[in-house]
Records
---
Amino acid sequence: MTLQAPDFTQFQLDRYSRQLRLEGFGIEGQRRLRDAHVAISRGGGVGGTVATHLAMAGVGRITVAHGGEIVPEYLNRMLLANPKDVGRPCVDAFADSLHRINPDVEVTTYSEYVTDDNVLRIVGDANLIADGAPLFEERYALNKAAVELGIPLVSGAMYDTEGYITTVRPGRTPCLSCIYPTKPPYWTNIKVFPALSTAPGLVGTVMAMEVIKMITGFAEPLDSQLMFFDLRTNMTRLLNVARRPECTVCGHLDNNDC
Amino acid sequence: MPKIFVPTIMRKHTENKATVEVPGTTVSEVFDNLIASYPMVRDLLRGKDGGLLRHINVFVNGDDIRGLDGDKTGLTDRDEVHVVPAMAGG
């Protein structure tokens, strides 16, 4: 049976035909992705993987914030950069790659890193934030913004061969500051973490799935759960996390505020 | 004995062991015994006051000990203790 949907081209229907067949997803899920705007902090090993999957899935608008220029050491883990991009602004390389993957996606870029001062300008228009930043200061700024805006935050991070992912629904599930109120003292710059492409790739892939779940209502999000893995030992666990009433970021919210 | 899952950042102090079985009937006891065997773990696990560092989360069989009895949470021989430090790698 050929699917008819006048608001999609035949090429788009063909392109997305495999995911349209997913139970609970369908053309309505595709419409929700097309109409969504996801802001992603950094387009590196984690954020770039999120952006890649979301572009392939057909998210309509993706904003990527990432300062600086491509350097060779990025190339072992960043899907959206290649050797010819060395020396270019990161966001230019990322935007070109995303456009090649899916030219229907509107890509907005900010050649700067997220801070407390610029975060609302960068994410204020988004339906959802995906957090792949390598510094806690950026992550906490995004977490506060998500709570302030009342929008979901999908957060994932890695170290070495480990990673974890959770989805924050402000007022309903623990925020990043509920789970980790403080950063480790040794996490002082982006060079502290060793990485192959695999751990950030897995984190980013699970995050993209979480974003798709949140936008479409398809499948079960990681509500109040931390998906934790270690690729060295093949260990995976779902760890239960809870809101902290004394949380300085989201403690004032009633349950189900999101 | 309860099994402690050691995060990668601590493994250089546990002879690169990813899991360690140590005796103890509470989280605090098994950490005491872990530190007795691997003293360098202490500074990555506990602050100067002896309490768990705030950027460390500990889960017993998948549940955060903050929702149980903290480091006094009881353990049996078959229990799993996951130590998960905050990370931000992207």
---
Amino acid sequence: MARWGMVIDLDKCTACQACVVACQTENNVPFMGPKESAMGRSIYWMKVVALPEGEFPRGKVRFVPMPCLHCDNPPCVKVCPVDATNITPDGIVRQIFARCIGCRYCTTACPYTRRYFNWYGPDWPEPMSESHNPDVSVRPKGVVEKCTLCHHRLQKARAKALAEQRPLAPGEYVPACVESCPARAMIFGDLDDPNSEVAQLARSPRAFRLLEELGTRPKVIYLAEGERNGATSG
Amino acid sequence: MAQLPADTVPATRAGHDEVLFYPIERTSRRFYITAAVLLSFTFLFLVAYITQLRDGLGVTGLTVPVYWGIYITNFVFFIGISHAGTLISAILRIVHAEWRRSITRAAEVITVMVLLFGAGSVIVDLGRPDRALNIFLHPNFRSPLLWDVCSITVYFLSSIFYLYLPLIPDVALLRDRGKKWNWFYRTLALGWQGTERQKHRLEKAISVMAILVIPIAVSVHTVVSWVFAMTVQPMWHSTIFGPYFVVGAIFSGIAALIIALAIVRKVYGLEAYLKEIQFDNLGRLLLVMALLWFYFTFAEHLTTYYGQEPDEMRILLSKVYGPYWPVFWGMVACCFVFPVPILAIKRLRTVAGTVVASAFIVVGMWLERFIIVVPSLSQPRLMPTQVVYYPTWVELFVTLGFFSTFILFYVLFTKLFPIVSVWEVQEGREKSLDEVRERVRTYLPD
């Protein structure tokens, strides 16, 4: 069984947000109007988070693309009272939209704030609703949603491989954000395969995980910028 | 018995406690006005909740990252108030505190009624209340929220049972008076005749329940605190949250009980039953809880401050002089600064004094629940945010509606059953003087 993970090289990332846009369209992520956005209610399965570092005038901001980090020990999964979020054998933290009761315990338990809630029912303007991705269900109001590592792409690739009676080839399953990155800052693959590019990069001395001290063991691994700064990992 | 004034003993049977039945058998205009006012707030709740069901939780002030607001505050607060009853009444029964006789019933009713609104607050908070039964279809026993469902259900059922047992002889009295709804009281009285055997069994059952209910009550509020403490969020992930919440619960519970007793006393003219001494004793208990509460609050915040851990400090500062400072300092003033002198000075510990102190404490403890729930959420790690949470009219109406409907249920109870336990008061008059004399004799050297 694979253990899907991602490496994001912060040296290569230009914070262009192509990954954000690709994710929104791929996963039918609902968008909020200007009023809701101003309240901070926008939903981003993939978000480029601006982390301020240091104090003025020496301060700087680093931009960190953050999908769900798909922890191996996810705090959100433990707390869900109805098992609407759980971890698949290949390590994807998934969300069962049809079972979620909307208690938002997972959203408060996630130390990365990577989970989002549907405050209203889906409301798509006319041309947008025509361009939904048919592979991804549109979430109803009142449930929690999050990055699924484009799980539907895995299902599709796996079905194809099964039909052709061969194992899943590396690179056959790639989430939309990784595919769209023009700088090739994001690498995706099987972390358990020692020869995969993602596993090799994950062993780099520049590699770090966000808030690793919490013991969540995220499977999204970052490569620090040139001069790695202690603050990046915290 | 022989030492008692001659007129007391027969009078208990004949009509000495007649005033305890007045609320049930007579209804004044004042009752209908009160009920109408309370119902109008229930109506506001319905308007607000229907709006929320139709449009979604977007009509609340909740946002990213403040996913929990005053609904969860209400949940913790109401469950806390519920400790008024059962726990206080059970402890007083077990230690044979004779002054308990006229206050236990009023306390137990609070528990049963307020638990409905505690559980209701979680349902109101759900994005998909229509799927609430998934809790039973797909339970995840690792979730503290499921532990809550289990412990609150057990608590609710045992509290109903614990309220009902001492109610049976009084229901039989009402049946025998035969004034209204005879079928209702006959059914509930379960054929009570007051024989020695029945009395013996009832007393046994009550004392078993009184003991059982204490660990259940403690577990309930501990588990409520674990909803927060089990996550790794700064200033939630605290080992003292269990006992801290239990202390706060008993604290706010006694305060609510004092207010309820004072209102019942005034409205139904029960000054002879709910005397100064009951308020004085409850005031002393309240004072002890206020000091304990302060001790826990101080320990919790000093530990955080001294440690200077940045993630926790951000939240501590947002409480102390960030956007939530009015709530934090309001809490300190209402839970400690104002009530403690009132309760500590004997001259001020009157009925009016304890009620004023209790009113401060009830408000202060609601603010305390808010200050625990919200600031931790508004300053998450890795997400610099300026979001400050303000509840909207929907949340305020739901909260007001819950409070008023709780009071309405309480009032309705007093119209159906005696709010002061008639048989226990009579028993006290008939037996306890001798019993206490006998008990005191055993304490003394021979």
